[in-house]
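worker-3 :: picked Cytochrome bc1 complex cytochrome b subunit
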Amino acid sequence: MSRAGRRAERLVDAADARLPVLEGGSLLRKAFPEHWSFFLGELALYSLLVLILTGVWLTFFFQPEMREVVYAGSYVPLRGVRMSAAFDSTLRISFDVRGGLLMRQAHHWAALVFVAAIGVHMLRILFTGAFRRPRELNWVIGVTLFMVSLAEGFAGYSLPDDLLSGTGLRIAQGIMMSLPVVGTYVAFFVFGGEYPGHDIITRLYPLHILLLPGVLIALVTVHLVLVFHLKHTQWRGPGRTNRNVLGKPLVPQFTATSTGLSLTVFGVLVLMSGLAQINPVWTYGPYRPDLVSTGSQPDWYVGFLEGALRLVPPWETNVAGHTLMWNVLLPAVVLPGLLFAVLYAYPFVEQRLTGEWHHEQHLCDRPRERPVRTGLGVAGTVCYGVLLLAGGNDIIALTFRVSVNALTWVFRVALVVAPVVAFLVTRWVCRALTAAERERLAEGVPTGDIRQTVAGGYESDHEPVETFRPGAPRRPLTGVRTGTPSRTPREPERPGR
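worker-3 :: tokens ->
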């Protein structure tokens, strides 16, 4: 970083120390750390902006109706085929509206990136402990935002009424039916009658373009307001304390960086939309209740539910004339409920167990310094990965010429064993990394020079540690053996440079 940039950071740091509450001009001097991991949330924000812009454009051409029409558009293989007006308008957007296919694919790619960015951002918050006091509310908002984004993505995925999305709706109807006592009533109300009904697309449409986007925008707004009010977390390092933030001022440095990131996100999404095909509904055809497309796979963010449904054995129980379908209720209702319950409760449980809820925490932890928390996060990620792979067990079995039944049992065992192994290995690796780092600080960095001692033995020369990763400890070094006069350590590099 240039001398002027460092001076700006010091000025911003001093301003924040004098003005802990943002008022007037201090807002423009608010400091933002510039480590790459802190930009994951902005990646989600700009993906959401692309979603909104492309979604508004698509609303001018899409018809959310299930009335039957005969296709007479440009795609010759489907001419004369009966289909819903929703699917007909989707084909018209793709083949007859100028730029329509590009906008459709940009909307879909942005949705995938949006959910992925939220998920990775939450992992960053989890692994660095940025959910601790006073940010518990922002963590709750983030989890809710993730949950609403899953619902929003599924609603948009189902609107074209093609064979693939219709298969997903059929699974959703089965999940509703698995609810004890009220399942049949819920499914009847949602679909407007016996499946597939005539109202599901008409009801999903206002949810997708009005209600759920409104909730998303409201949650994002509150989330950003809290980020400004509570002050940004930062890595430990020289000059960084719980009472200040060292980084780029909002105007003009951070604004310029954020603007560049937004343009990059827009450009990459448009490039992907023009080069990488996604959701080609014309190859699936219109939805028919008596058909299922070969190799049906949902978008990745609900793939874990598909995998869970495939792994649970066909368990059923009859109670007082009601059938409890455990093979659907457990993986599709109980599992997601437990997942989000754990996510909501984790910040409060950990802080109670560690006693950290008494004090505010503004400095990030390094994952290796919290082996149990890091192990739990990796175990949860591995569990999700097993379920995601299980959702494509038929495709994997066909590709590698293995038995789908044997593969299903492999995934069942892995679902129980793999997270435990992942937790133990991650905890061991974190402790090993911490021990190696402690030894490196105590003994210094090997220079590669070997010298012979008076007693006739050999030992390697070391020099003081001069470069540090973000958040790494920088305590003074003692007892460093050097064969030649050691250099005076220069000023350590700033984190993230």
